[in-house]
Amino acid sequence: MEWTRGRRILGRGSTATVYAATCHNSKETLAVKSSELHRSEFLQREAKILSSLDSPYVIGYRGTEAKKESNGVVTYNLLMEYAPYGTLTDAAAKNGGRLEEGMIVKYTREILLGLEYVHSRGVAHCDVKGSNVVVGEKGEAKIVDFGCAKRVDPEVDSGAVMGTPAFMAPEVARGEEQGRESDIWAVGCTVIEMATGSPPWTETGESPVSVLYRVGYSGESPELPCLLTEEAKDFLEKCLKREVKERWTATQLLNHPFLMTKPNIEPVSGLVTSSPTSVTDQTFWRSVDEEVEEEETEELQEDWRNLDRLNLLDCYSERIGRLRCVGGLDGSILDMEGGGWITVRVSCEGTMIGGSHEENILEGFVN
Ligand SMILES: Nc1ncnc2c1ncn2[C@@H]1O[C@H](COP(=O)(O)OP(=O)(O)OP(=O)(O)O)[C@@H](O)[C@H]1O
Fold first, then answer.
1. Fold: same for 3-81 and 88-271
2. Which amino acid residue places its CA nearest to atom 6 of ligand 1?
3. Nearest residue to 47 via CA among 69, 15, 73
4. Looking at residue 249, what is its pLDDT?
5. Which of the residues in the chain have pLDDT under 70?
6. Could you say which architecture CATH assigns to the domain 3-81?
7. Among this protein's residues, is 308 annotated catalytic?
8. DSSP 3-state assignment of 36?
9. How far does the centroid of ligand 1 lie from the alpha carbon of residue 11, in Å?
10. pTM for the structure as a whole
11. Does the Cβ of 87 fall within 6 Å of ligand 1?
12. Using CA of residue 198, residue 204, residue 209, residue 215, what is the dihedral sign?
């Protein structure tokens, strides 16, 4: 497929940057997640899993391509359906920090429909959270970022655990196991994020390591938002069972009264967005052009500089590796978020392969 990467950056993660792009033939707006080829291990894994999935509640796969950029760098690119309305984290922020319960019901139902499908295909997502759920053209929630996803097969399971501490289930925080049930715990945490604007455990400003310890060993479950109805709280209790076997499945939760009784709100017209709905939305693109023209070169250069700087971070891997012992997470990939903590990923060999906000990493991890 012939395509051109646009100027607009839709999001940046620890190992890749997501841009808007245009397909030459169809003129469809796409999202392209790009990373340097030699750092694209996670992106290639993500592409493989995403290419095997097909659901209205999972972002659509459009192909992959290695490309030599004008600066000579070879990138690996995952092309996806473009979701124009941002993430659920953005939606809560735009709505004054929290979503109304009707919207929470709608998005939660769609996330669970996506997960029910993903789980039925033998895959666990392993990093469900508001910033990994985008809002599609019709206002529907779509799960993105399968960079931590894995096939749920005890025979080949490496035992490595991945994800974002504030959304991790107790068994994940203890480094014991990670599967479909751990995604359900993360759905509960995502509901709390939609209802309060913050993930659970983060209100006290604890460090990710102490959050991991608390989740794994304290016996506590996250505090339930007091503004939610009793039905919503009951639903959350079913997601946030500390015992893996007691946690409800996606299919069971889809039949919970919390998701059964509320009207099916169609939010598209109510959504505030600055994103284009198609490449023909010239007004949007003109305004973006004006904004980004000066920023573009600087931004792209900074992108590559960031990638280069990641090399410097290798020297901290040993110290970060020690954290894995503290959290009881041998061979883990940690994606730290909340309270100024940004993403860190450590390969199974203990080599740090990515981090999006180096200062925070150094500040937070290195004493
Ligand atoms: N298909 C898409 N359409 C629109 N925006 C997208 C799409 N995919 C991703 N994004 C945006 O880009 C951001 C980063 O994407 P993604 O989470 O896949 O990257 P990542 O490198 O894996 O991030 P992280 O390191 O946080 O896991 C998302 O939070 C979202 O804002």
1. no
2. 10
3. 15
4. 97
5. 154-159, 261-367
6. 2-Layer Sandwich (3.30)
7. no
8. strand
9. 5
10. 0.77
11. yes
12. negative
